[in-house]
Amino acid sequence: MGASVFGGGGGGDPYMGGLMAGQAIETGGEVELVALDSLDDDDLILPVAMVGAPTVMAEKFLSGDEGARLRTEIEQTLGRRVSAVACGELGGINGVIPVTWATNTGLPMVDCDLMGRAFPELQMTTAALAGISINPVVMTDERGNLVKFDTITPEWAEKMVRTVVTSMGGEASMCLYPMTVAQAKEATVVGSVSRAMEVGRLLLEAADDPIAALCASVDGYALIEGKIVDVERQTTEGFSRGSVTIEGTGGHNGRFLRLEFQNENLVAMEDGRVVASVPDIITAVDVHTARPIVTEQLRYGQRVSVIALPCDPIWRSPEAIELVGPRVFSYDIDYVPVEELHG
Amino acid sequence: MGASVFGGGGGGDPYMGGLMAGQAIETGGEVELVALDSLDDDDLILPVAMVGAPTVMAEKFLSGDEGARLRTEIEQTLGRRVSAVACGELGGINGVIPVTWATNTGLPMVDCDLMGRAFPELQMTTAALAGISINPVVMTDERGNLVKFDTITPEWAEKMVRTVVTSMGGEASMCLYPMTVAQAKEATVVGSVSRAMEVGRLLLEAADDPIAALCASVDGYALIEGKIVDVERQTTEGFSRGSVTIEGTGGHNGRFLRLEFQNENLVAMEDGRVVASVPDIITAVDVHTARPIVTEQLRYGQRVSVIALPCDPIWRSPEAIELVGPRVFSYDIDYVPVEELHG
Lengths: 343, 343
Description:
Largest sheet of chain A: 9 strands, mixed
Structural class of chain A: alpha+beta
Oligomer: homodimer
CATH class of the largest domain in chain A: Alpha Beta
CATH architecture of the largest domain in chain A: 3-Layer(aba) Sandwich
Number of domains of chain A: 2
Number of strands of chain A: 17
Radius of gyration of chain A: 19 Å
Order of helices and strands of chain A: HHEEHHEHEHEEHEEHEHHEEEEEEEEHH
Largest interface: A-B, 19 and 19 residues
Mean pLDDT of chain A: 94
CATH topology of the largest domain in chain A: CV3147-like fold
């Protein structure tokens, strides 16, 4: 649930992720979360993720063999052993999918990820920003099909992986950006998994004002509290795209907030003005429990709070904004950090 | 040009194929065509092909590195050397593409192919019919992207390769069904390249009646002689699909023949009656020279003869008809061999 707060509406439903990880631990035993520092600099770590439309992930399940298949292919291709799996991104499913695959490959999980949040496309990683090659990318489906990519740019990997995902039925399992621990220390968001676990624990403890407690914990801002009055959603080109409108309630009567998403929430707008945007994290949460609601679960009539929190500082350089800023998603606006908009 | 006669309208334009092979030989030297019998039974042969819509092949060129890249990936994956390249299918480009790649990999080309004609989809091969695995399938584009597939069925390979072809711009280079010489003796159309070369030489020699000479050489039937009065063509889902109507001229006045194609000509119909269908080979040829005209080159006003010739006998078993017969292409008709329809 903590990973889903950082997922910004994407990365998969934490209810599903919890069930998947719970079952994996029940059958395969507990998984060790290790710090990068506890591994050798030369050890190979393997970031993994589910790829596709979260709307599909909710109903198309893993067979359980995916992790072992990905690991075998990587080890054969690179001619060396994988020492640990890592999160490709944070999110309700992608934050815990390494747990699933750690149990069935017998590996530890390392405490870092490639985004510090979730993003919809494969090139949108701290690894790409640091110049780490995405290759080889390996993907597999629950039937046993396996595809390996060696691409000239991460953008080409994104383009080709997305079409294969569609032909596999809208969702697949993958690994990408295999790297050494030494590289990971520079090219990942270090400690992001244990940070997400802290936030998850906070959500499980009943607070008097869970929204305020959550905001305090993640330096977040509550943009609005209200009721969802409009949802528009398409599952297209391997993505879940759309928008929701939230009408303010209580002290927010008469206000309307619009969220637009491509798997993840991209921008929040009020009266035509952007009140938060990528790469900062925008997450809708249940108004009573502060538990995150992913974009594919947003429904008419839900009572939600929308919170915005600062992204990892790595995303705020001009190079990073060129990779993941609002213009990449066709919004002709400058990125303004959320704390400048609301601080 | 001979390969294009057997290509049934597909497999690429022989003019382009001739230019490509000519340039390859000019820069890389001549290529040896060897019989399967001259290789060791245990030698590995690598069938290769261009995949995509022939309409795209006419304007999207190879970089020249494709063959070497495919060979390297296969040799690394299988851990053994390739001894010769082979045609995936016959056709104006695909019948000679192994020449191009033989020169830049230093390999001979072996005298066989996987269809004895051209077909639009990857599972439509004598190799699949014989139970040879399509894996690993490797494809690459002229930019340097490389994708390797390990699929549970050839139909899954077809589905996924087709989507990647589309993302690569509609055309790519590939190898598939790597096999030993011992397997190839049972699972390919043996001698089909030298057979195509005989037919090509016949077309280069001026005959008094080239259509009749061609039909005599390939046991073909001239279905109609006339003028193209209608062409409908779409480049969609990685295929070139459409139909042409030919109005009879001379002795065929008042008759109309309709050809329907998906890369290759699939059925020829007259007055609602099927007069030839897959797996038999239907090829439009220039009425004066008998030189084949591929489906992407068919134009309003062209004077053509349409000839139909028997496919290799391997395609006439019930199992083969299930793989490549008219019903596979959504025509609700029984396959009747062309010599029964016209003999």
